[in-house]
Amino acid sequence: MSLYLDDRQRQEIQRLRASWRWRSEWPTWLLIVGIYGGWFGVALIARTLGMPLALGALAVLSCWYMSLQHELLHGHPTRSALVNALFGVAPLAVWFPYAVYRESHLRHHDDEHLTDPARDPESYFVSAQRWEAAGAGMRLLLALRNTFVGRLLLGPAFSIAGALRDLGIAILRRDVLTVGSWALHGTLLVALAYWLDRRCGIGWFAFMFGVGYPALALGAVRSFHEHRAVEDASQRTVINEAGWFWRLLFLNNNYHAVHHDLPCVPWFALGTVYRGRRAAYAERNGRFVVHGYGEWLAKFAVSMVAPVVHPVLHPLGRQAAAASVRPAAQAATRLRTVRESDPARLEPATPRTAALAMRAAPVTPNAALIVQTRPQSAHEHLAFAKVTANDASTRLAS
């Protein structure tokens, strides 16, 4: 479903849709040729390039291919889902079958439940129940995953583990379509890995972990804090005014709020649509706008960008959300106390401080980590971790 800002925008997009560029989708066809040609071209000259350079180039091209897969599942460049799938089924990015990714991502576009860990398959939040069931090691990993560096290093591992878990569930449920998609993907992956090894000198381990894993890490740059947990669904999705390299690599999906409102707009038109109504989109998404991925890196390289437990759906999360729009109150145990009237002295919560807070928490089954944040105008910069024991009778189901 498309959500237009107003009738004027609807008419503007109808005019764009009537253009030859949009009707022919020649930029997407050119992209398909460029990605496939570049990927196999680099593979064939891998020995000449040298393995480090070849693997690096293939990782970038595989990430670009994942952006193409995203474009394909949204109905481009043809109206046929089957034809589009033929261009997206190749296992160039290693880890996930196209059909499984397509089904999962379309569920993610249910904006009413965006970020809900029980309903959004791409949410990086967890339920209170999952947090309470996690051991100290897993809690630390979840906290690390909410830093920029941690997302790049650990995010792919979480995604792969989640996909394999879902495959196990599909096998137990005898989900023929899902298991069949994995079987086809596995067959193509084995064939491609064999060819790369024999013809190009790229072993299977180098392919999976020297190409596939870094490609997922690059993709994690785009998805880092792509959605925030707030009550208003229209303000959950970011607009990232990234540089040309990232815009091309991610096919303008950095204009993510525009994409969620207008998922049928092709990648080459997203920038035009956004620039035409830049102020209106900033107003619509609650000014959740950043100026490049370097801004995330500078602020959250080793600081958590958001709570681990969903801060709105969790019963006590509402308290943290309310605290995010006023000067911070009192820091948690083992974190230094700051005066409420002096928000500038707030310390970002790092995985280390989060771990200290976890260690200080009472050993009860219903202890949950709540992270209080600065006002939204500071882009939800994490101030400090606060460990709270919530009443079991008030917990929400995951």
From TrEMBL:
Keywords: Aminotransferase, Membrane, Transferase, Transmembrane, Transmembrane helix. GO terms for molecular function: transaminase activity. It comes from the Bacteria. The keyword Transferase applies. InterPro entries: FA_desaturase_dom. One of its GO terms (biological process) is lipid metabolic process. The keyword tRNA-binding does not apply. This is Aminotransferase. It comes from Caballeronia choica.
